[in-house]
Amino acid sequence: MGKPPNLYAFPGVDELAQSLRVFVLDAQNSALSRHQVFRVALSGGSLPKVLGKALLQETNGGGKVQFDKWEIFYADERAVPLDHEDSNHKLVKEEILDKIPAELGQPKVFPIDVKYLDDVQEMADQYEQTLVSVFASRDSVRLPMFDLLLLGCGPDGHTCSLFPGSPLLRESDAWVLPISDSPKPPPKRITLSLPVATHGIKIGFVATGGGKKDIMKQIFDTDEGRQLPCGLVNSQAQERVSWFVDYPAIEGVSFPARRGSL
Ligand SMILES: O=C1O[C@H](COP(=O)(O)O)[C@@H](O)[C@H](O)[C@H]1O
After folding, report:
1. Radius of gyration, alpha carbons of the chain
2. 11, 74, 151, 154: least CB-packed within 10 angstroms?
3. What is the 3-state secondary structure (H, E, C) of 105-155?
């Protein structure tokens, strides 16, 4: 048995962002020393705003964000135009990409191909081909290994666009999956599969606010919660997973959290 996931708790989002920056920069620096590029998969939802706060305030410390060496992929994306208000890419663009100072350079970003908005299977296949071209051929690589995945946790325990009880959770072959009936709008999406989401070198979750405390308690303190998508990432990736939460999100959670900075 491996070690359990790390749960780091902070009084508020400002303190959380400082430690999240240290965590991301640590992952960036090890990736750059391994292969001169930092490959990261990002979620949408509440994550991009907190991540922007972490990365764009240099006073947070932890070293330099080498954005020009980053390759950004999406852990999940909604099948909408890239400037649509439901687009995860739009959020990342507004909260991070558009705010990067020119001297730090720009990441290479891999958004969905909007040619396939009406065909999510084709969109997922195309996004998988993008991963194949970056991470080498599927014949030689069983699964793409991101240097870091930064994930959110929905109030129902979903992560990426993997929802509780979905048959997609049993997928063992495809890297990227289509969804046409997401319980949370918009219905049409693509998502990394669970094997890909749990295969990263490091996986960071960010969950903030009292609206997350019931699901956090389930995920960390109950057997049923361990079967939810976020719980499955915890049990499959174990100590490679680190959660960054604020105090309101873990009110009542018994699982031991480390409080304060990393
Ligand atoms: O629909 C989605 O929701 C999850 C969780 O969002 P949050 O706002 O509760 O943090 C998000 O991680 C995912 O990327 C998004 O498509």
Report:
1. 17
2. 11
3. CCCEECCCCHHHCCCHHHHHHHHHHHHHHHHCCCCCCCCCCCCEEEEECCC
Within 10 A of 65 (CB to CB), how many other CB atoms are there? 24
Ligand 1 neighbours, Cβ below 6 Å, are 43-47, 76, 88, 152, 154, 161, 184
Among the atoms of ligand 1, which is closest to the Cα of residue 77? 16
221-247: per-residue pLDDT in tens? 999 999 999 999 999 999 999 999 999
Query: What residues pair up with 67 in beta bridges, in sequence order?
Result: none
Do the interacting molecules here have an ipTM over 0.90?
Answer: yes
Whether the CB-CB separation of 3 and 232 falls below 8 Å is answered with no
Mutation choice for ligand 1 from 49, 161, 188, CB with most ligand atoms inside 8 A: 161
| The pairing of beta strand 108-109 with beta strand 202-207 | unpaired
Pairing mode, if any, of strands 176-179 and 148-152? Answer: unpaired
At residue 65, φ and ψ (nearest 5 deg) are -85, 115
Model pLDDT for residues 71-127, shown as the tens digit of each residue = 999 999 999 999 999 999 999 999 999 999 999 999 999 999 999 999 999 999 999
